[in-house]
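Moderator note: this is an archived Q&A kept for reference. The question asked for a predicted structure of one protein chain; the sequence and the answer are reproduced below.
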Amino acid sequence: MKIGIIQTAPNNCETLEKIAARSPGVEIVHYVDGCVWEHFLTAGERADDKVHEVLAADFNKLIDAGCERIGLLCNLIKPGIEEVQKRVSLPIVVYDDVLANRALEVTPDGGRIAVIAMNTLPLDPAKRAVEAAAQKAGKQVEISTICVETAKICLAETGSAELADAYMERYLRKHQKEYSAYIIPQVPMTRIMPRLRDMETPVFDSMEPFVDELTKG
């Protein structure tokens, strides 16, 4: 099975390949399009008609290349994806929608979900994804958005991802009893997942559930 993934930078390709390798017969066609990000910035950090046009063309190229499933690994350019979908024949899977659905599955009515990262940028789009998923599922949930400032400051001041990750892990473990599920929409943070396997509270990272959804067939 070929799955096509659009992203705006190449730094996640290697990790995506490692995750996909767990599913025999899966091949990823990576489409890294920095142009769509430039259009997004030029439009005042908005996903305007030009962004939609470029995304639709990119997805159709993936389909022409034989991809059976297609996905978007960037929630900042997601607004208006329904307009893009009208121009594309395959369903578009967006990673934070997958995270939202997975979190809702393990969260009871009235439960709490934390959308958490070291960066504020992906938080609000992911929160909106959870809100939409909750409405569709008919569940009332409380959604918190959290930027772990200690981790953010550590990374900015030391440049050490290892130290910053330790702060992130410490926060997750300390507060896990407060939530039914954690969502981490900051794509590179998938790197900390091996350290969190023993947590009682489910943690849904950006890449593993996303690739799993794309490889369902």
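Archived answer notes: The mean pLDDT is 94.
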